[in-house]
Amino acid sequence: MKTSAKLFLYLGLFYVPLIFIYGHFTEWSEPVGAVGLALSAGFGLMIAGYFTMTDRKMDLDPSDKPEGEINEVSGEVGFFSPYSWWPLWLAASISLLALGLAVGWWIVFVAAPLVALAVVGWVFEYFSGEHAI
Q1: H or E stretch at 119
Q2: Cα 28 from chain centroid?
Q3: Which of 54, 70, 82, 108 is deepest in the core (most CB within 10 A)?
Q4: Whose CA is closest to 111, among 90, 92, 97?
Q5: Measured CA distances, 14 to 6, 9, 68, 100 (Å)
């Protein structure tokens, strides 16, 4: 994790001066590039912060040890929902929401409750029903 945190920290810090360099050469007349670079810097720093906070809670990762072996990483990675249909409905409703942003705002008002329903369904999927934990 430490290696990943450093990688994203350097990536986020790399974009910060590029914002000003880009702004200088475009004379701040084209804001989309500066905003895109600022978002890239923010995302890199946000992911680095997440990895740093997660690293404090976990043991040393084999990728952080100089003498770490590949077979030390084997084992259970995590829990993945094998029979969930909620990601499909979430993707479909977000696609409908994006279509509404492009075509007409009335579609956004139809799609927003569907997105909320899909998110809530996916989050609380294992609290009731046959797969309840």
Answers
A1: helix 105-123
A2: 29
A3: 108
A4: 97
A5: 12, 8, 29, 35
Q: What is the secondary structure of 1-12 as a DSSP string? A: -HHHHHHHHHHH
Residue carrying the six token digits 């100089």: 66
What tens-digit pLDDT sequence spans the chain (133 residues)? 788 899 999 999 999 999 999 999 999 999 999 999 999 999 999 999 999 998 888 877 777 777 878 777 777 766 667 778 899 999 999 999 999 999 999 999 999 999 999 999 988 888 877 767 6
